[in-house]
Design goal:
The chain is of the alpha/beta class. The protein is built from 12 helices and 20 strands. The chain binds guanosine-5'-diphosphate (GDP), 6-O-phosphoryl inosine monophosphate and magnesium ion. Magnesium ion binds next to loops. Its EC number is 6.3.4.4.
């Protein structure tokens, strides 16, 4: 299987890191690639009880023999990149080979400043961003005033680009937000200071990956963020500023859609969301608190508590559709072992009518009330199960029911954070 996409099917934090790590260690993988987002991601991998978190780096950085790639669609903070690499090395991790696209856009410290100022300005309408400068960096890219990785190696060009980028930004900062202007010299100096260390990693990653696929090598595209956070297909404007859906992989890596063999949607056995925006199955009662506590639902990047709710099959079907999922990987089934009865949202009620698919407009989605079907719980610890037959009968029924209503077959089920805590349903 040469090209595999792993992506989030809900609002993020589904366990993409675990799924990627599992695939990268059970099959020989040659490349693990990030194609969108930046260090707003937080992916957890647990190996032999040891916990690692990656943000900008692909989880493949921990997989011996795999080359990690940060492709053109990613927004790269060199400061965050080196901090993350140094953090892993300090823990004694042997980091894998890393390649960075010359065309990837750069996040400088002023992007984070603008991100935070903009959020403050939005007041009660704020998105609840990670404050990492992701939105402002993508805005510069789309406005055609972005700085790309290759620009760091030519001071004259870099200065011109930073000058152009800050021109309008500084008007906004000083005249609208009442802040100090950002100095071009300081930004140029900051970015130049990363150039020497970055240069050996930089290459044409699109060429590299296409050549790898031509040679029959296996490439794993590790999604960040998720379908419902996609700027086109998510709950706009409460989204991130990139395309985490499967289509974004082609744009973000410079490979054609015909190259992709498997698209695996990672989905939790319940739902979580960080930041603002609509969330039909969100719980505001003890069940919500219990899901949050038992699931350890605290953000890896920002330490924020995640909002929690039941599984939403409408979201799952939508994710299957817009990503063309070939499979689902269902995580955190073990967390549901404390409930006698487990509700699953099978449809919405919107203004008195039953709706089975994602509504067309955001207004309707804001009005959506979950229609629940109830499943008997298994009331036991399943974290030691290693095959589908090991699972209690009610857990098997739950998995099969989700498969039936979610638009794609369930390839595997997570029963704990560890790499080995996985049950393969369809091998
Ligand atoms: P990502 O952003 O999609 O990679 O997910 P995060 O790492 O932000 O959040 C997922 C959390 O769930 C992490 O703490 C994982 O270690 C944990 N996790 C993943 N799969 C499972 C599972 O099947 N069971 C349990 N209990 N935890 C899991
Ligand atoms: P992983 O890869 C969960 C959310 C933020 C905010 C919105 C916009 O770990 O699943 P941004 O900083 O991207 O402009 O914030 O998107 N968000 C995530 N939520 N998991 C993530 O990544 C996220 N990355 C961004 O909370 O609501
Ligand atoms: Mg995460």
């Amino acid at each position: 299987m040469p090209a595999i996409v792993v992506l989030g099917a809900q609002w993020g934090d589904e366990g993409k890191g675990k799924a990627t790590d599992l695939l990268a260690t059970t099959d020989p993988i040659d490349y693990v690639v990030r194609t969108s987002g930046g260090h707003n991601a937080g992916h957890t991998i647990v190996v032999n009880g040891e916990k690692y978190a990656t943000h900008l780096l692909p989880s493949g950085i921990l997989t011996p023999g795999a080359t990690s790639v940060i492709a053109n669609g990613v927004v790269v903070s060199p400061e965050a990149l080196f901090r993350e690499l140094d953090g892993l090395v300090a823990r004694g991790v042997e980091v894998a080979d890393l390649k960075v696209s010359a065309n990837a856009h750069v996040i400088a410290s002023y992007h984070a400043t603008i991100d935070k100022v903009t959020e403050r300005f939005l007041g009660k309408n704020q998105i609840g961003t990670t404050g990492r400068g992701i939105g402002p960096a993508y805005a510069d890219k789309i406005n055609r005033v972005g700085v790309r990785v290759a620009d760091l190696f030519d001071e004259k060009i870099l200065r011109e680009k930073v000058d152009a980028a800050l021109d309008v930004r500084n008007h906004l900062l000083t005249k609208v937000y009442n802040r100090r202007a950002i100095e071009v010299d300081a930004v140029v100096e900051e970015l130049l200071s990363y150039a020497d260390r970055l240069q050996p990693m930089v290459c044409d990653t699109s060429l590299l990956l296409n050549q790898a696929l031509d040679a029959g090598q296996t490439v794993l595209f590790e999604g960040a963020q998720a379908t419902m956070l996609d700027v086109d297909h998510g709950t706009y404007p409460f989204v991130t500023s990139s395309n985490p859906v499967a289509g974004g992989v082609c744009v973000g890596a410079g490979i054609g859609p015909t190259r992709i063999d498997r698209v695996i949607g990672v989905i939790k056995a319940y739902t979580t969301r960080v930041g603002s925006g609509p969330f039909p199955t969100e719980l505001f009662d003890d069940d919500g608190v219990q899901l949050q506590q038992l699931g350890g639902e605290i953000g890896v990047s920002t330490g924020r508590t995640r909002r929690c709710g039941w599984y939403d099959a409408v979201v799952a079907r939508y994710a299957s559709r817009v990503n063309g999922l070939t499979e689902l990987f269902l995580t955190k089934l073990d967390i549901l072992g404390a409930w006698e009865r487990i509700p699953v949202c099978v449809a919405y009620e919107i203004d008195g009518e039953r709706v089975d698919e994602m509504p067309m407009t955001q207004t309707e989605f804001h009005h959506a009330k979950p229609v629940y079907e109830y499943f008997d719980g298994w009331m036991s610890d399943i974290s030691g199960c290693r095959s589908f037959d090991d699972l209690p009968a009610n857990a098997q029924v739950y998995v099969r029911a989700l498969e039936e209503m979610s638009g794609a077959k369930i390839w595997g089920v997570g029963v704990g954070p560890g790499r080995e805590q996985t049950v393969v349903v369809h091998g």
